[in-house]
Specification:
- The chain has 328 residues and is an alpha/beta fold.
- The protein contains 14 helices and 14 strands.
- Strands 6-7-8-3-9-10 form a six-stranded mixed β-sheet, sandwiched between helices. The protein has a four-stranded antiparallel β-sheet with strand order 2-1-4-5, covered by helices on one side. A four-stranded mixed β-sheet has the order 11-14-13-12.
- Strand 4 and strand 5 form a beta hairpin.
- The longest helix is centred in the middle third of the chain and has 18 residues.
- The chain starts with a strand and ends with a helix.
- Belongs to the ABC transporter superfamily.
- Its main location: membrane.
């Protein structure tokens, strides 16, 4: 049983009669980036922090790769889980290299292996090692600190990552850049990531699946496209932006809606679009070229799938199909 499984998980804080997390049942599939979305006080951060036992659940069980988290020594558990918080959480008295080396040193890695890993990770998050290794957090911008925080969380190559509003205190341009960085990392490393956010656009842009929470309960758990197409109630519909379908699909990438190439013996010649492009761009290309089908290509220009107008229409609800057709 890979991934993270919550079974009847409830959390009461001392002195409170109302649970912060109320009987949550979820399965986070291995290798997926799942966002926990909701307003302040909905229980999303509490749920996240129970995974690495920063908080202990009052009731229920949490399984990680089939093992009950309470039966795993807490230090061993946390070494398998990277943790990234808002404002990076870097140790201010340590240099960048010392911050990144923290967990590898605890695990007894030799100095050469640690040094190589530091360079590798700094390059991975687009920070030149020669420039940044000896810097202290105070000598860097917020976005640079957040990149180092991400590198530190990845240092021991943990299979799981917990991210608690990591980009929440950063300006919009840097935030978009860091979101791109995370998507790039996730595509290469396929970590299992739980990502807390209160920002709907961020959730739509990043997630394989979204958990929408309210009053400690899970209201809906599905792919971004399915939540937009079929919100379970008015609360979810309102949170996702109501009828603003064009804004919504501009935040979802082609990869989320394409059909995998392995399902087809061959594809007819067609216009091509990058899998990282958004659905609004794909729709505009279809309308401009008159093609009802696009070939989807990866960063190496290899064909990885197909995207058809009928497929997008099938996924979206009848109400939203009508709005898209009006664009024509």
């Amino acid at each position: 049983m890979d991934g993270i499984v919550f079974r009847n998980v409830t959390k009461y804080y001392p002195g409170s009669k109302k649970p912060a997390v109320d009987n949550v049942n979820l399965k986070i599939e291995s290798g997926q980036l799942v966002t926990l979305l909701g307003s302040s006080g909905c229980g999303k951060t509490t749920l996240l922090k129970m995974v690495n036992r920063l908080y202990e659940q009052s009731e229920g069980e949490i399984f990680i790769d089939g093992m009950n988290s309470k039966e795993v020594p807490v230090n061993e558990l946390r070494r398998r889980i990277g943790y990234v918080i808002q404002q990076s959480g870097l140790f201010p008295h340590m240099t960048v290299e010392q911050n990144i080396a923290t967990v590898p040193e605890m695990l007894g890695w030799d100095k050469e292996k640690i040094s190589k890993r530091i360079d590798e990770l700094l390059e991975f998050v687009h920070l030149e090692p020669k420039v940044y290794r000896k810097r202290y957090p105070r000598q860097m911008s917020g976005g640079q600190q957040q990149r180092v925080g991400l590198a530190r969380a990845l240092a021991a190559d943990p299979p799981y990552m917990l991210m608690d509003e990591p980009f929440g205190a950063i300006d919009a341009i840097t935030r978009a850049s860091l979101q791109d960085e995370l998507l790039h990392i996730q595509k290469k490393l396929h970590k299992t990531i739980l990502f807390v956010t209160h920002d709907v656009d961020e959730a739509l842009r990043l997630a394989d699946k979204i958990v929408i929470m309210k009053d400690g309960k899970v209201v809906q758990y599905d792919t971004p496209l399915n939540i937009i197409a079929n919100p379970i109630n008015e609360f979810v519909k309102g949170m996702m932006g109501g009828d603003d379908i064009m804004r919504q699909i501009s935040l979802i990438n082609v990869r989320a809606a394409m059909e995998n190439i392995s399902k087809h013996s061959g594809l007819k010649p067609a216009e091509q679009i990058a899998e990282s492009s958004d659905l609004k761009t794909a729709l505009a290309m279809m309308l401009k070229t008159g093609c009802d089908e696009l070939q989807v290509i990866d960063e190496n220009r290899g064909i990885v799938g197909r995207l058809s107008l009928s497929h997008i229409q099938d996924v979206l609800s009848a109400r939203q199909q009508e709005q898209i057709m009006e664009v024509k």
